[in-house]
Amino acid sequence: MEIKDCYNLIKNKFIAKNIDESDAYALFDYFYGKDFIVANHVLNKKEINKLLRIANKRIKTHEPIFSIINFSPFYGRFFKTNKHVLKPRLDTEILLNEALKLSNNKTKILDLCCGSGILGITLNLEKLCKVLCADISNFALAITRKNAKALGANISAIKSDMFKNIQDKFDIIVANPPYIKTNDIESLDSEVKNFDPKLALDGGDDGLKFYKIIASEFEKYLSKDGTLLLEIGFNQKNELLEIFSEFDVKVIKDFNNLDRVLIVKIKE
C-alpha cells in the first residue's frame, strides 16, 4: 500500500469517529516526516499494521495520539513525552517566540517547571543560549535529559521546587507553570485530565499558586535588565496584573487572540 493511501485510510477512520484528521497527519509526520504525502514510498505489511494498531487504539481508548507514540511536536522537532509530563501545546510557541527575540549565544536562561524541556532545549538549539532546566519531578528531569541528548542540546537540568535550588542569576526566566484551578481539573476534556499529569495541571485553589511564588521570588534570580516570561491561562490576565503590579508588565495574545503570555520586567 502506498503511504498516501494508508494515510487517507486512517484519516477517514478518524473522521468517521469524530477525531480530527490532524491526528492522522501527526502520526505520519512522526514516522515519515512532513513530506510523507508526496513521498513515493510503499509501506510493507509490518508498517501498515503498526499504524493501524495506533489508529485503532486512538479510536477505542480516546488516548491522544501523542500519548500513544510518546513523542510530541514542538517548534519543528519531536520531543519524547510520557504520562509524567505535559504534552506540548502550540500556544507555548508564543512564549518561545518572545524568548527567542531576546536571546543570543550569550544569554543565560532558566526554564522553570521545565517538564519535557521543550522551551530550554529549543532555546539552546536555536540560539545557543546557556540554559538551566529545573523541575520538581525526577520523571520530568529524566525526560528533559533524554530529549537534550537525542536532539543534541547542551543544557543542564536540576531538581528544584520552584527556586529552592537555584543559585545563579539569569537574563531570561521562562516558565509554563501549572495554572488550572484544582476544582476545575475534573471538568477538563478527558484527553487532558486522563492523560496529562495532575502535577503539571494543578495550580491550586485559584490556579495562581505558582505565579504568586514566582512574583515573590524571581527578582533574586533575574539579571539587571532581565526578563521574566510566563505562559498564563486565557482568563487570568487581570488577576496576574494585580499579582505583578509592582513590575512593568506586557500581555501577549495567542493564535486565537486570547491572553497567553506575560512579559515582566523589573521597574528601574
Structure in words:
- With about 270 residues, the chain is α/β, with parallel strands linked by helices.
- The protein has 2 domains: about 5-70, no CATH class; about 75-265, 3-Layer(aba) Sandwich (Rossmann fold), CATH 3.40.50.
- It is about 40% helix and about 20% strand.
- The chain contains 11 helices and 9 strands.
- It has helices spanning about 5-15, 20-30, 45-60, 65-70, 90-100, 120-125, 140-150, 190-195, 200, 210-215, 235-245; strands spanning about 70-75, 75-80, 110, 130-135, 155-160, 170-175, 220-230, 250-255, 260-265.
- The protein has a 7-stranded mixed beta sheet, with helices on both faces.
- Helix 7 links the parallel strand 4 and strand 5.
- Helix 1 packs parallel to helix 3.
- The mean pLDDT is about 95.
Portion of residues in beta strands equals 15-25%
> Which outline best applies?
globular
Tell me the number of helical segments per DSSP (H or I, 4 or more residues long): 11
Low-confidence stretches: none
Overall mean confidence score, pLDDT = 96
Secondary structure tally: strands: 9
- CATH architecture of the largest domain, please? 3-Layer(aba) Sandwich
Distance between the termini: 65 Å
Q: Report Rg.
A: 20 Å
- N to C succession of SSEs: HHHHEEHEHEHEEHHHEHEE
Please name the fourth-level CATH homologous superfamily of the largest domain.
Answer: Vaccinia Virus protein VP39
Query: Given this structure, which CATH class of the largest domain is correct?
Result: Alpha Beta
Which bin fits the share of residues in helices? Answer: 25-40%
How many domains, as an integer?
Answer: 2
Query: Main beta sheet: strand number and arrangement?
Result: 7 strands, mixed
Strands of the widest sheet, in order across it, are 5-4-3-6-7-9-8
Can you tell me the CATH topology of the largest domain?
Answer: Rossmann fold
Structural class comes to alpha/beta
